[in-house]
Amino acid sequence: MLFQDIYDTALRMICEDAYSAAPDYDDRAPYLLANFYNEQIPLQKKLDAVSGRDPVEYLPEICVDLGADFPFTEELIPPATYYLAAMLVLDENEEMSDRLFDRYIDGVASIAMSLPASSHPIKDRYNCLK
């Protein structure tokens, strides 16, 4: 999937398309997607570790090329779409932005909760466990 596909889907979520969207959406989308990318690197690295894939790295640029492949796993595509849609309408429709952002947060939390966990014994640093 391309970053452009995520952008197109986000536009449809906010009832826009490439022809009717506000002109600044095209300008803001690459920066917003780069922000999402860098915010979610820690989660993606955990997903990579679980699946044995090579970890992705932080972006050296402050924006993404919309024609480039989305380097994260498929699980992060819906949260990326909700994040982008929420950020695009933040100035025009705060209520819609809040709802979309809540779905983004729920999606990321759901992915994080699905990761396997390990347990370790508790260290008794105060000599109070018997």
- Into how many domains do the coordinates divide? 1
What would the principal axes of the Cα set say about the shape? elongated
Taking the sheet with the most strands, its summary is: none
Uncertain runs with pLDDT below 50, 5 residues or more?
A: none
Q: In angstroms, what separates the terminal alpha carbons?
A: 54 Å
* Cα-based radius of gyration, to the nearest Å: 18 Å
- Count of beta strands: 0
Helix content: 40-55%
Can you give the mean pLDDT?
90
| Structural category | mainly alpha
Strand content is: under 5%
Compute the number of helices: 5
**H/E element string?**
HHHHH
Task: Give structural notes.
The chain has helices at 3-13, 23-39, 41-51, 77-88, 94-113. It is mostly helical. The chain has one domain. The model has no long low-confidence stretch (mean pLDDT 90).
